[in-house]
Amino acid sequence: MDDAGRVGRYVYGVAPVSAGAPAPQVPGIDPAYDVELLERGSLAAITSRVRVTRLSPDGDDERLIELALRHEHVLESFLAAGLSVLPFRFGTLCSTEGDVARLLETKEPALSTALAAVDGKLEVGVRISIDRERVREAILDADDDLRDRDAQLATLGPGAAHLRRKQLERILDERVTQEASRRAATMLDELSSGASAARSAPGRDAAVVESSYLVPAATVGGFVERARSLADERGVLIDVTGPWPPYSFVEFEADGDR
Amino acid sequence: MATADDIDLRRQITLVELVDRVLHQGVTLNGDITLAVADVDLVYLGLRLLLTSVGSLEEAAA
Asked: Could you tell me where the DSSP H helices lie in A193-238?
């Protein structure tokens, strides 16, 4: 099939039909076309025309990021206008306007349920990581026994010192990991009380844990501030991102229509 | 005080979080109403490359 010049319908997400706030005027993922709302029943698809070939990043990361940012920007514009959104994953493309309408009609119950679950709520990302060196120092400061053993290393001959050092480092390493998980868990617990829902996953790279919180839009500012304030002087680092559209709290099962 | 490196790292983290959500989360539809994006495998391949390079950048900054 020749896709050159073909124009499809990109779908960013679904919003509730509301008589209140008007839809924001915002360029779509293809800057040649603005975003429009397509309404069916109680649901409005956030959609725009797109030249299909523009969706292909051709393995170019910069291009992919630009597309992802455009998708995000559209949803953020709706959130900024005080509207709720049920975000769709990047790359949802229909052939025609009629297909978007059909999508809303056939998936109405599942979409409405998923939308209700995130209505009036935003997502905040919290990534906890540690400065192992500083946590290690804090542990040594607080533990006389380990500190003595560390100090004794200087009095031993090189062979014995090497073995003891390896042993001590192994113990310390384990303690640092335990201490980090313990402190991360305490922080996550504390944050959960301000959220409607939470999801956590083991952190990638240097992070101990990565969590997402679903927070009422009205209290999201306070939540972000509180999360930032949990970083401490003893080596726990917190990166807070968002507020995002509630991507991680979408509960929608594609019902086997493959 | 945040250094230029800190700010750059933070921007990278935000970018990874963004791409992660937009490309991996949200409502996913299958079926005859939606077209498959022809290059979807390329999209994910590209993302993995991106995450790998950001990961090594964080290690270098740690």
From this structure: 220-229
